[in-house]
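Notes from the 1:1 (GR / supervisor)

We went over the backlog. Supervisor wanted to see one worked example end to end before approving the batch request, so GR pasted a single chain during the call. The sequence is below; no edits were made to it. Supervisor asked that the structure be written out right there so they could see what the output format looks like.
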Amino acid sequence: MNQAWMIGPALIQLSWIYFGIALTISWVVLRWLTVYRHHPNAREEALNALLTGILVTVFSKIIFRFPILLEDPMTVLTYPSGWREALAGLAAAGVILYRAQRKAAIRELIPAAALLFLMTHAVYTVFSQPTGIGIHPAALYMLIASAGAWIIVRQKPNWTGSTIALWGLTMTAAAYVTAPPVYFVMIVPPPFFLSYAAAGLLTAVYLSARVRNAPSYSS
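Structure output shown during the call:
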């Protein structure tokens, strides 16, 4: 069961603590156990994109729940974020990565962000253990999807876009056998993960156009 505590107007959930631990672990892995130990700019910008996405996901509820903000501004932050906020966070992270091309090559930025995200999701899944429907081990499905995608991106960075697209499709299927379907701390409809499939496809096309003959980065 996901425990929660009220701290002022904010609702602090145990799942957020799990998320913080997962993000820390994934950052340590990215920093010391991947090729990105030699690419600090890409590493830092990937973290910046992920953190920006988190902040937008948390606080964009102020926009999506504006009527509640007008009625009782002190309680709007206690409402959980949903799929709309998650999409806004994904879009914000994408914008940050696009703008970060001034500081690091896009062929380094996108795989670094994907590695950070996928490891965070894998570790978070271990802690949170989503409940499957019937005989389906939903947590195992999600763990295999995220860990497998992480391994592929680490070994084949140029496959990042197609790997994220496949991850999105796999997570969509897994969400249909999860009760309730979750995206980190949020409950989302299963088709939400198709946004990652679309983002991955667009990324694959973009990277193919930009770095078709770029060298492969692997450790």
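Supervisor's comment: The two ends are 39 Å apart (CA to CA).
Batch request approved.
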